[in-house]
Design goal:
Elements: H1 6-32, H2 43-59, H3 62-70, H4 73-78, H5 83-95, H6 101-121, H7 129-159, H8 172-194
């Protein structure tokens, strides 16, 4: 019988928090200092993919996997609430002419809807059949949304070469928020499958 050692789990949670805070601070600091202003456009998808894969692999380490496995699935769902204000920000950027409508409308309304659905999904418990289905529907819709946004962003940036302000704070999305969102979706599927 596997028993997760509470002190070890607690220290793993602290390490995860410190790592995420350090990662965010690094990207935020580089952006604030002007080092991420107008980066080469191919760097954006490369950074996003590398960080998402790296985060997933790091989360598969035995201690981190055990820690994530001990979380309430709703903690993973709560991550997506941040998408609500980000969606509003996308629409505001569009209104100011700083983002093309193709990207801003899709990302804006999709993120607002996902963030709102995340709040509603917190009411469900994955241990019940109805709760599990509700969380599965939410997670599927949220993942489809973020993948559509990522794909559209690459089209707008690389194929259309549309005028997009991809400096700070925009770079926080592909270099911090989106990798975490994708990994949270994948972990939610893993957890729901095990339930």
């Amino acid at each position: 019988m596997n028993v997760i050692d509470p002190p070890r789990t607690s220290s793993t949670g602290s390490l995860v928090f410190i790592t995420l805070a350090g990662w965010f601070s690094l990207v935020f600091g580089l952006g604030l200092a002007g080092y991420l202003e107008d980066p080469p456009r191919p760097l954006i998808p490369i950074a996003l993919a590398s960080l998402a894969i790296g985060t997933w692999l790091a989360s598969r380490r035995p201690t981190v996997r055990a820690w994530v496995g001990g979380l309430d699935v709703r903690a993973l769902v709560a991550v997506h609430i941040i998408r609500w204000p980000i969606g509003i920000w996308f629409l505001q950027m569009y209104e100011e002419g700083r983002l093309p409508g193709e990207l801003a409308q899709l990302a804006g309304w999709g993120d607002i809807a996902t963030g709102m659905l995340a709040v509603l999904a917190l009411a469900f418990d994955e241990r019940g059949a109805i709760g599990r289905r509700a969380l599965l529907v939410f997670n599927t819709l949220g993942l489809v949304d973020i993948l559509l946004v990522v794909g559209t962003a690459q089209k707008v940036l690389l194929i259309d070469a549309a005028p997009v302000e991809i400096g700070f704070p925009f770079v926080l999305l592909p270099m911090f928020v989106v990798p975490l969102v994708i990994v949270a979706h994948v972990w939610t599927f893993v957890r729901l499958r095990r339930t």
